[in-house]
Amino acid sequence: MSQIYASAAPISTKKTNVDDIRRSVTYHPSVWKDYFLAYTNDVTEISGDEKEQLEKQKEKVKKLVAETPNDSTVKMELIDAIQRLGVGYHFEKEIGESLRQIHENYEIQSRKDKGDLRVLALRFRLLRQQGYRAPCDVFDEFIDEEGNWKESLLINDVEGMLSLYEASNYGINGEEILDKALEFTSTHLESLLSHQINSSLCKRVKEALDMPISKTLMRLGAKKFIYMYQEDESHNEILLKFAKLDFNILLKIHQRELHHITRWNISAADEFQLPPYIRICYEALLGVYEEMEIEMAKRGESYRLQYAKKEMIKLITAYMKEAEWCYSNYVPTMEEYMKLALVSGAYMMLSTTSLVGMRDPITKTDFDWITSEPPILRASSIICRLMDDMVGHGIEEKITSVDCYMKENECSKMEAFSEFGKQVNKAWKDMNEECLEPRPASMPILIRIFNLARVINLLYVDEDAYGNSSTKTKELVKSVLVETVD
Q1: CA distance 59 to 371
Q2: How far apart are CA 234 and CA 73, in angstroms?
Q3: Coil, helix or strand at residue 143
Q4: How many domains are contained in the chain?
Q5: Which residue of 67, 95, 183, 243 shows the fewest CB atoms closer than 10 Å?
Q6: Dist. CA 456–CA 414, nearest whole Å
Q7: Helix axes 117-130 and 92-104, enclosed angle (nearest 10)
């Protein structure tokens, strides 16, 4: 197979000690070590009984979906529960058809539900999630003449405000009504946490404020929602039982994959005389590409791997340029920095590589599109880079966007953070819009890009939970990759 490498001009430095030359943070060692080696095939085997039970329960849920009228609130609540429980992938055809009909009757049903903010916002969110351009004028009755939300109508409707809060996170650029909704509901829901609302509702509000549905990773969100759904007295026992079994079966699959990943019997890469810490990474990287090449050749789709390799070379070239800046103490302009940093954030490489093993209908056109740095990928990369730079500023010994912006605009760190916060919010709206019809690519592709931004949002809110191997990160991993649901 061809080699993966990148070159750059040699860096002049008087330092000779490796620890002095490498400007890096001393990261905490992995707390997992070889933990996942214990998940051998016999431990993670999915029994015939489990498979049989899953299929039987799946048919029951499918029947439940089919028998619930599309023009009912119950149907929307059922779809919402199915998706949030993480089992929507089993019923994509059924859910897609139901939401298509709900969209066709959007105005009629919205008039019927006039005054019911919870239901109006739920319908709006479900359709936006599906990629429909549901108009937000259904909320006009809750807006006063100055364009502000009518506090007197909403202040006592906690369920309605929670539903509106979740819906407003699917806003796009120019939807001022949703911008105001997000600000209004966030403020009032936060204040309500210390007041008299029941325990179950309080948990839901807190979870939503910490991580709204639009920014939640599927498996983590499903694990949390299973327990919240279980506490809801109106939950459907058939659906709950199916979701638990499905989660535990997927858990075994993921544990088996981690077992294989934790194993890398790595030999030395002597031909490049690489230092030990680079040698391990390099050998592992070549192993990944070799495995992909074998698999793609079997499917007659070897061309896919070439796109992934080119993106990796582009990434490594960006790393080398950043190293030049670092060791020459060069502070680039924001334009220079962002042009390079959006590549070095690795999301462009990861997005492209994630498509390599996907089944049809992934085409060469899709690879041409994703490697052209489309708006949704740039937006996801902006979120990654700016949130990373903000949380790591003052910790990592390297030039970041914060330094570039402060120098270029002669402003404070606080002012830079304020501006970056606005850019991150705009990037989320850009991604929301790219997921609405007509879409530039299929939803499975767009969701992969969206999920990368969700990862960063999860790890970099309030702390660097990625670089610090914090208790938070450990608990997140345990939740989705170690602990079953009962």
Answers
A1: 40
A2: 14
A3: strand
A4: 2
A5: 67
A6: 21
A7: 120
Q: What is the pLDDT of residue 167?
A: 98
Once rounded to an integer, what is the mean pLDDT over residues 134-146?
A: 96
Q: What is the CATH number of the domain that holds 358?
A: 1.10.600.10
Residue type, position 343, single letter: V
Residue 272 has pLDDT above 70, yes or no: no
Residue with token string 């937000």:
136
Interatomic CA distance for residues 126 and 114, integer angstroms: 17
Task: Quick: pLDDT tens for 433-451.
Answer: 999 999 999 999 999 999 9
Would residue 189 count as lying in a domain?
yes
Average pLDDT across the chain, whole number: 90
> Which pLDDT belongs to residue 90?
98
What local confidence, expressed as pLDDT, does residue 18 receive? 47
Q: Give the 3-state secondary structure of residue 222.
A: helix
211 and 354 housed in the same domain? no
58 falls within a domain: no
How far apart CA 390 and CA 130 sit, in angstroms, is 32
Same domain? For 211 and 331 the reply is no
Beta strands in 263-395 (DSSP E): none
Surface-to-core class of residue 246, CB atoms within 10 Å of its CB (0-12 exposed, 13-18 middle, 19+ buried): buried
For 196, half-sphere exposure in the C-beta direction (CA atoms, 13 angstrom radius) is 0
Query: Could you tell me the two tokens for 207?
Result: 């979870």
Looking at 215, 232, 249, the residue that finishes a domain is 232
Q: What is the per-residue pLDDT across 196-215, written as a single tens digit (0 to 9) for each?
A: 677 888 889 999 999 999 99
Q: Tens digits of per-residue pLDDT, 225-247?
A: 999 999 999 999 999 999 999 99
Which tokens hold the place of 89?
């992938």
Q: Are residues 226 and 306 in the same domain?
A: no
B/e letters for 46-70, b = 16+ CB within 10 Å, e = fewer, are eeeeeeeebeebbeebeebbeeeeb
Please state, as a whole number, how many other Cβ atoms lie within 10 Å of the Cβ of residue 5. 11
The domain in which residue 118 lies consists of 105-232
Hunting for tokens 């404070």 — which residue is that?
412
* Alpha carbons 251 and 82: distance in angstroms, whole number: 18
**pLDDT value at residue 78:** 98
CB 391 within 8 Å of CB 399: no
In this structure, the chain runs to a length of 486
**Same domain, yes or no, for 440 and 320?**
yes
Put residue 387 in one of left, alpha, beta given phi > 0 → left and psi -120 to 50 → alpha: alpha
On the question of pLDDT at 255 being above 50, the answer is: yes
pLDDT given at position 99: 98
Angle of helix 375-392 relative to helix 347-355, nearest 10 degrees, comes to 130
Q: How far apart are CA 399 and CA 239, in angstroms?
A: 50
